[in-house]
Amino acid sequence: GRVGNLLGLLQDDQNIHDNFLLYSGDDGSTLDFLKAGGHGCISVTANIAPAKMHQMIASYLDGAEDEATTLNTQLDHLHTHLFCEANPIPVKWCLYKMGLLTSPHCRPPLVELDSQQYESTLLDALQTAGIEL
């Protein structure tokens, strides 16, 4: 797909050194990015599920593609729904629900998450990822 095409172009460029590492900035495409030759990820999901994101990437890099796919599937709703509002609004809300923050408050110009609109979706994403509240 598009990720592979972009990575192929970058990796074939004679001006890019071997030590130039390529990282995904989109959690939802990280596994495909790795499969296409990427080296890792700058992750939003890892703020909520750091061990599971690490395990997913490490599993793929260690050759356990099935395990990486299973973990990525568990994280998929988080990958998507952590962007229901501007970052870090949903992340702070999730961390608050997980008991890791005392408040979901964001500094202006950001506002707190509209819980009525997004609470059930985010709670479902947390549950699907295996995160206990």
TrEMBL record:
- Full protein name: 4-hydroxy-tetrahydrodipicolinate synthase
Q: What organism is recorded for this protein?
A: Cyclophora tenuis
What does the UniProt keyword field contain? Lyase
Q: Name one GO molecular function term.
A: 4-hydroxy-tetrahydrodipicolinate synthase activity
Concerning InterPro entries, the annotation shows:
Aldolase_TIM, DapA-like
Q: What is the lineage of its organism?
A: Eukaryota, Sar, Stramenopiles, Ochrophyta, Bacillariophyta
